[in-house]
Amino acid sequence: MTVVSDGSGTWTALRDDEVVGRLRTLVRPDRRRFLLIRDDTGMAYGPLLDAALPMLGGDVRVEVDEDADEVRTVLADRGFRVDRREHRYVIPTDRVVASGLPAGFDVVSAADADVDRWRELDDALRQDVPGTAGWRNDPAEFVAREAGDPEFDPATYLLAVRQGNGEYAGLARVWDRPNMPRLGLIGTLPRYRRQGLAVALIAQVFGVLGQRGRREVCCEVDVANAASNALMGRLRAQRVGGNVELILVS
Questions:
Q1: What residue numbers bound the domain in which 229 lies?
Q2: What angle do CA 29, 137, 112 make, to 5 degrees?
Q3: Among 34, 183, 192, 216, which lies 20 to 30 A Cα-Cα from 208?
C-alpha cells in the first residue's frame, strides 16, 4: 500500500493504483484540529495515520464509532486516548408537545436574521456545548459556512428573538440531510432557560419536517451533557449508538 500527500493536508492510500482510503485535516473555529478519515476497507487506517502524524504538529483529534474496536486499537497503538463520548439518538418528529412560544418572544428564520447577532448567539451557545468551548466564528466566513451549506434549510433553522430589545435568545438548527434530517444544535442563552423556549423551537421545526413526511431526526449529545440528555428523554428519543472522540497530545 502506498500513501501520497497533496501537500495541503490530504493523504490518499493507494493499492494497485486504486484508492482505498483518504485522510484530511480540518481546523474548526474552536481551533481544534480533527483528522477526517475515510477507509471503507478497514485496511488503510494505520498507513494513513503513519504518513500524516509525523507531518502534523500540535494536538489532533479523531471521532469514531463506539463499536469500531479495531480502529480504536489502531489509534491507541499510536498514542490516542479517549477524550469524550457521545450518544447518538433518533427523535420522532410527531411526539413533541408544546403550547407555542413563551410570551415575549418571536421567531425568525436564519435566512432573515441579522448576521452579527446570529453569529454572536452561535458563539455564546457553543461555549456550553461539551467539546466546542472556545468556538469563535470568523465574521467573514460565518454566513458562507452556515447558509451556504447544501443542507441549510431556512424553514428548519430558527432563532428566537426577545421582543422589545431584539436580543437573539436561542436557536434550533436542523440540517436537511437526504437520508435523515440532523439536529445540529438546540440551545438558549442562560437567562432565557427554563421557560420552554427550546421545546417550542423544536416543536416548530419538527412540525415543518412532519408536514414534509420526515418522521425522524438524528442528533448527537455528549454523555456528560445532563440537560441535553434530559431533553432527549422528554422528546422520546431512542439511543441508536454512540461516538468516541480521541485525542493525540503532542
A1: 90-242
A2: 140
A3: 192
Point out which residues pair with 38 in neighbouring strands: 22
- With both helix axes pointing from N to C terminus, report the angle between 69-77 and 45-52 in degrees, rounded to the nearest 10: 30
pLDDT greater than 90 at residue 7: no
Q: Which of 31, 56, 86 is the last residue of a domain?
A: 86
Nearest alpha-carbon partner for 86 in 211, 215, 240, 213: 240
Q: Which CATH number do you get for residue 67?
A: 3.40.630.30
The predicted model scores a pTM of 0.90
Q: One-letter amino acid identity for 32? A: R
Q: Are strands 18-27 and 216-222 parallel, antiparallel or unpaired?
A: unpaired
Give the pLDDT confidence of 104-141 residue by residue, as tens digits. Answer: 999 999 999 999 999 999 999 999 899 898 999 999 99
pLDDT band at 98 (very low <50, low <70, confident <90, very high): low
